[in-house]
Amino acid sequence: MYTLGEFIIENRDRFSYSTEALLRLFSSIKLASKAIHKEVNKAGLTEELIGSSGFTNIQGENQQKLDDFAHRAFIESFKSRNVVCGIASEESKDFIVIKGEQENFFKNQCIVLIDPLDGSSNIDVNVSIGTIFSVYMRKSSIQMNLTIEDFLQKGNKQILAGYIIYGSSTILVYSIGNGVHGFTLDPSVGTFYLSHSNLRFPNAERIYSINEGNYAKFSNGIRRFIRYCQEQKDNRPYTARYIGSLVGDFHRNLIQGGIYIYPKTASSPEGKLRLLYECNPMAFLAEEAGGKASNGKKRILDIKPTKLHQRTPFFCGPIGMVTKLEEFMINYE
Ligand code: AHM
Ligand code: MG
Questions:
Q1: Residues 26-41: tens digit of each pLDDT
Q2: Which of 115, 118, 275 to mutate to test the pocket of ligand 1 (most atoms within 8 A of CB)?
Q3: Is 57 in the pocket of ligand 1 (CB under 6 A)?
Q4: Where are the domains of the chain?
Q5: CA dihedral 88, 270, 240, 41 (to 10 degrees)
Q6: Ligand nearest to the CA of 59
Q7: Per-residue pLDDT tens over the stretch 50-80
Q8: Tens-digit pLDDT profile for residues 270-323
Q9: Residue 142 has what DSSP assignment?
Q10: CA dihedral 313, 317, 323, 324 (to 10 degrees)
């Protein structure tokens, strides 16, 4: 019974910043995720938790009540721990500045990018949803105001990334650059325990995950890759699995061996998923787990962002599968 807190302290050596900062970050993340776990698990019981909040977010998407709850839970949790100076969230047009009580080198130096509740169209139907988070050190001097450039850093500058999946159990998966580790919440005591040590994509290539309903809108290269997935290989084609929740699809593919595919389409010419708080953290985890993440031409972690809510095509999974998909895109576009 190895708790997340104990694990962080014993495995902090790859975290080049302060252990205190790391513990404060996780204190915020654990608290908000437990509050969301509690709400998600009773969502079917009360009208106050399911359905639309009545607002539209910056993406033009209908905000769900739990999207709003999760956004506020994380903001409040980070605000009170003197470690974060700015947050950008899927649910907020602009970044949010947090003024620390005492600003010194390791306090209030972290920038958080977060999708508080991803896959929220699955809330009302009791299917897995998740939180995706990503942390950087601020670039600007602590004497200056935060600027947008503090948030528009390449993914390869992340110091911490992870997700929480609210599924048949609630699991927190993270990396600080020393592998990918998963912790399952025991709700009876409110503690995360180590359950998935050093997660790696298995050698098996088994699954492809894509919204195939968009087939007619895909490029030739993507269509050819889908047909390749459906061909017999070692007596069976790849299995298709897609639940429309990036965290859920990624988590399954990480454990069972599969590729997640969200290409650009005729109606989403830049892709659907957001680079900063969906793709970059997942790409960081994928690489730490021995996999690969690409926009079809370039490593996701090397893309220089230009906008907070920038979108990108996203292909992520075992190296062999992602490389094969890139070849199809080059050869058949
Ligand atoms: P969201 O942030 O509004 O929930 O959208 C992101 C989600 C991802 O979790 C998921 O993989 C994708 O959108 C599903 O999109 P689609 O319904 O077009 O397949
Ligand atoms: Mg999202």
A1: 999 999 999 999 998 8
A2: 118
A3: no
A4: 4-196, 207-332
A5: 20
A6: 1
A7: 667 677 776 777 777 888 999 999 999 999 8
A8: 999 999 999 999 999 999 999 999 999 999 999 999 999 999 999 999 999 999
A9: T
A10: -90
Query: Would the CATH topology of 4-196 be identical to that of 207-332?
Result: no
Q: Is 152 exposed, middle or buried (0-12, 13-18, 19+ CB in 10 A)?
A: middle
* Residue 27 confidence (pLDDT): 96
Q: Which CATH class is domain 207-332?
A: alpha beta
Specify the 3-state DSSP secondary structure of 315.
strand
Neighbours of ion ligand 2 (CB under 5 A): 115, 118
Give the pairing of strands 170-175 and 160-166: antiparallel
This model's pTM is above 0.70: yes
Ligand 2 center to residue 320 CA distance, Å?
26
Q: Which atom of ligand 1 is nearest to the CA of 119?
A: 4
Distance (angstroms) between ligand 1 centre and the Cα of 244 equals 5
Q: Tens digits of per-residue pLDDT, 80-116? A: 888 999 999 999 999 999 987 655 555 789 999 999 9
How far does residue 166's CA lie from ligand 2's centre (Å)?
14
For ligand 1, atom 2, name the residue with the nearest CA: 118
Fold of the domain built from segment(s) 4-196: Fructose-1,6-Bisphosphatase; Chain A, domain 1 (3.30.540)
pLDDT attached to residue 46: 66
Cα 180 to middle of ligand 2, angstroms: 21
